[in-house]
Amino acid sequence: MVAEISDRVREIAEARDLQESEVFERALERGLEDLWEDLVLAQYLDRELDREEAVERVGRAKVERAERERDLVEKDVDWALNA
User: Fold this and answer.
1) Cα–Cα distance measured from residue 29 to residue 24, given in angstroms and rounded to the nearest whole number
2) Could you tell me the CA-to-CA distances from 51 to 7, 8, 60, 66, 83 in Å, in that order?
3) Please, what sign has the CA dihedral across residues 21, 22, 25, 30?
4) What are the tens digits of pLDDT across the range 8-54?
5) In the prediction, which pLDDT does 1 show?
6) Is the pLDDT of residue 70 over 90?
7) pLDDT at 3
8) Please, what's the largest Cα pairwise distance for the chain?
9) Please, what is the angle between helix 60-82 and helix 51-58, to 10°?
């Protein structure tokens, strides 16, 4: 796994004409952003955070998408329980 990661970093660095350290930095930033959004949306859906705060932190589009996905899951569960 470590060798695979190193190979990917090296390939990205060469293709983008970047230093490997910059590839790692960008990957860390992107990963942290995804983790942050997941946390905020989970807190919102668990009612630990109000909607406006969630919108402020991750944006209206992401909150609305999370709401649509939650609603679809709830409909599927309801259908399965009543089928």
Assistant:
1) 9
2) 42, 38, 9, 11, 33
3) negative
4) 999 999 999 999 999 999 999 999 999 999 999 999 999 999 999 99
5) 79
6) yes
7) 83
8) 57
9) 130
N- to C-terminal Cα distance for the chain?
Answer: 44
Task: State pTM to two decimals.
Answer: 0.80
DSSP 16-78: HT--HHHHHHHHHHHHHHHHHHHHHHHHHHTTSS-HHHHHHHH-HHHHHHHHHHHHHHHHHHH
Tokens of 22: 């910059």
Length of the chain: 83
- Would you say 67 and 80 are in contact if contact means Cβ atoms under 8 Å apart? no
